[in-house]
Amino acid sequence: MRHGDSGARVRELRQRLEVLGYRSADPIDVYGDATTALVEAFQHARGLPLTGEVDDTTWGRLVEAGWQLGDRLLFLTRPAQRGDDVADLQVQLAQIGFNPGRIDGIFGRATEAALRDFQQHRGLEVDGTLTRATLAELRRMVRRDSARHLVTDALDLAMVTNQLSGPIVVCGNGPLVARVSRACSPTGAVEVLDDLGCTDVAQRANALGASLVLSLAAKDDVDGVHVHYWASYRSHSRRGERLASALASRLSRTADLPRVEVTGMALPILRETAMTTLHIEHGPASEEALAAIAHDIAEVVDRLIHNRP
Questions:
Q1: Which of 56, 193, 225, 273 is the most exposed place for a label (fewest CB within 10 A)?
Q2: Could you give the maximum distance between any two Cα atoms of the chain, in Å?
Q3: CA distance 279 to 289
Q4: pTM assigned to the model
């Protein structure tokens, strides 16, 4: 959906936005300027590209935002349950010391394991399902008037999470894919996945236990180099932020390279992968600049991922 559309689908979009507090002056079934601005505001809040258009990713996040904790049973399914209610569950588990993994709103195996640990600790039926009894006990345990300290944040800050030893996965499109894979190969195993979609790449990387995913994209409308790491409205990856910042610093010291921006975002590739992932977009660049970018990426990866001086 985009500016100029109208009809029942737009009406549902407006209703979902209004439930979240995004109200528009446009007629309820018209996608006008005000609705476009609201969609951009929602995208900004959720760490998505500011297009003002509702693609599959934006629509999916809108649907997820409509779930509140207690609206439904939460348990491990395939595909996984997703929503703000799952994120709330993850936050509350992390507040009281049970590690659900990354706060990403996806009910995966780590979240199920944390929920089972909580149930066992509190003498509840250990079934990995957020039942009414489990939710009531969870709410009783969480002190809402205290400062929020998450075990997930503590572990990430200490750099003791996601210490995976698999290969580096390089994926995406454009001339940097081959260059970066070659540059990283001398210091460790590299798996190139340049012909797969986001979901397939994430599944493959997760199955491999990849130590890092480098997602590369050449875009004509990008000015310079944009480096993105995982960040949502609930949490962000400190390891990803550290790696992205180190890369930006290294690129900025290389002569004749375009400007670099670092931004935390909740792009699908950053959300779906269990390990540290960077999504790197770049605009048109000379062969010399591409070679320098690939060299700098490999150098930073070698230092921070392989822990070489």
A1: 56
A2: 63
A3: 18
A4: 0.92
Query: What are the residues whose beta carbons fall under 8 Å from the beta carbon of 301, sequence distance 6 or more?
Result: 168, 184, 187, 212, 214, 243
Contact 210, 168 (CB under 8 A): yes
Strand blocks (E) in 219-259: 225-230
- Tokens 């993105």, residue located: 228
Give, in degrees to the nearest 5, the angle at Cα 65 between 60 and 71.
115
Task: Tell me the domains of the chain and their CATH numbers.
Answer: 8-65 (1.10.101.10), 84-157 (1.10.101.10), 168-304 (3.40.630.40)
Q: What is the DSSP letter of 181?
A: H
Sign of CA dihedral 71, 52, 50, 174: positive
For the chain, 309 residues long, give each residue's pLDDT as a single digit of tens: 999 999 999 999 999 999 999 998 899 999 999 999 999 999 999 999 999 999 999 999 999 999 999 999 999 999 999 999 999 999 999 999 999 998 999 999 999 999 999 999 999 999 999 999 999 999 999 875 455 677 776 666 555 555 568 999 999 999 999 999 999 998 889 999 987 899 999 999 999 999 999 999 999 999 999 999 999 988 899 999 999 999 999 999 887 777 899 999 999 999 999 999 999 999 999 999 999 999 999 999 999 887 765
**Residue 194 in tokens:** 């340049």
Alpha helix positions (H), 26-166: 33-45, 56-65, 84-95, 109-121, 132-141, 151-157
Structure tokens at 104: 């990403």
Comparing CA positions, the residue from 275, 264, 170 lying closest to residue 217 is 170
